[in-house]
Amino acid sequence: MIKKNIFKKVLIPIFLLFSIYAHNISSMQQDKQETIFAAHLANKSILIMSADTGNVLHTIEKGLYTQWSPDESYFAVQKNNTIEIWKTTHWKLSKILKPTGKIQSTLFSPDAKYLAVQVGNKDIEIWNTENWKNLTTLKHNNKIQSRQFSPDGRFFAVQAGDTVDIWDTEHWEKVHTLTYTGEIQAIAFSPNANVRYLAVQIGNTIEIWDTANWEKEPILLYKEKALRPFDSTQDQDDRQEEEIQSIVFSPNGRSFAVQWKDEVHIWNTANWNQEPTVLTREFRTGIIIFAPGDIHKRRKGKIQFSPDSKYLAVQIGEEDNIDIWDMTDLKKEPKTLLYTCGKLGKIAFTPGGNYFTVRIVHTVSNPQSDIWNTRNWKLIKSLRYPNTIWLGKFSPDDRYFITYIWNIQEMQILDTRNWHVKHAKKLDKQIWSIAFQPSKAKWKQQQERFRKAKEAQEDLQERREFVHKMVRTEKTPGKKPTLFVPKSLYFAEKDTEIAQETKKIRALTRKIKAKQQELSNKKDEIQNIKDAWYFFSKSRERDLHKATQKKEKIEKQLKKLQALKQELEEKSSKKDTALGITLLPPLKTFE
After folding, report:
1. pLDDT means over runs of 10, the chain (591 residues)
2. Where are the domains of the chain?
3. Which of 131, 286, 452, 480 is deepest in the core (most CB within 10 A)?
4. Could you tell me which CATH class the domain 180-228+241-384 is placed in?
């Protein structure tokens, strides 16, 4: 009976309170996404800060390089030959990875399932982010120049010398090897879920590979120009000018921009046989800027797509103007941003696409950054700090702009709604870099798009195989073979057992995926409960510790009072004895 009363009066209320607490934490996390960033200082300290409050949430010492996982769950910090993995929910050290060689670089896969760690010059170790175990080591014969995952995470491309190895990330098997005789200048995956290509630039030619079928012959761009004979008497600058200077896919994957000499060619990825649209402008010296997620190229010129693929920014030269082309109507004259003084530096669209930034360097210690509104292309802010060198970074949603001013050693967090300084913090050491935590909501949306695109691709492949089975070739003696397509081809899928089995398999696949999604949601709920229990237990420990301290303090005070009372009684009895007073017992009262 006593146990039942304890269960009803004590355990049930605690369980209900704990459930409400966990639900509130999860709902708060879903309702509001705090803007968090990592500031890497010159003394190798890493400050994890909140842009909303300006407070330092955590400090990590002696970090060389850092990287956020795409789903914002982990924060990887390289320290000499080890990698620390921090859990971002309560900034607890989750794991310490110890690769087998000298760490050159780290890279998370877009689906956050793997961490690729390059050790030495020829090997890459693949770590599973679920249990942080080393799955395999990808070995290459030549020195690795670059490596990147496809945007959907299905493939991993590694450029080593004159080869590009393509790995399947599901089983980590090499599915194809691209071998070339010339120097590989750049490689780039198309970022869209429905348009899947890999572009490889070799000298003055570009190969476009279909990632759905690696056995298919690639599409060759500028093949006739690449066959031009090499002239050793030609000036080096002239030879450099003739080469392809930069390549970049638009974020929606519909366009492919190539800078050839003083022109920009826009190719339609839906029809590579169609001649490209040529944007003619005079180029001078510049630096290549690529949209986020596209591969890097180290040549001349600046071209960049906006995140929504609506605009293409082209820089004419270091001391000239910038053309903004409307991708919906390339026949229209571009919008020109006029710059007549100063040296143009980096140009970039902000992550949210609301602004376009242009850096102008009048002198080494006198930089300026102009911020343009991409809705009406009006200059809304010009940030200039005389006699200093500074850096700046926009948050993923363009809500905040963080800058560090070196001469006063101050980091400022600006609110882009009014461009006022919301928070300012003095730092003893200068900031090397700033990296914002990715948005988990955007990551989930992107993964959902890739999942739907994969299902559509599989469905299309099934239909092609079905048509291939139904279509047959009839051979007649003395005549050319004729292709016979039955009239019932489009209705046969409903009438055959194969189609029925296919439907059953699809239904089961959908149920399995639904169950997997349900399990994933349950895992998230369990993790939220664990986090809530962690905070609850910590608060209980603090309360018990305070109560114990208070009890000990009260006991000490009671002991002191008892000792004082005993001392007073002894003194009183001695005084009464000296005066000859005898205390009589209390009188009894009678009714």
Report:
1. 50 57 48 81 90 92 88 90 91 91 91 92 92 92 90 90 91 91 86 81 88 86 56 44 77 88 86 86 39 37 87 73 88 83 81 89 72 91 69 88 84 90 88 88 80 75 68 57 52 56 80 86 84 79 84 87 85 71 50 44
2. 180-228+241-384, 443-494
3. 286
4. mainly beta
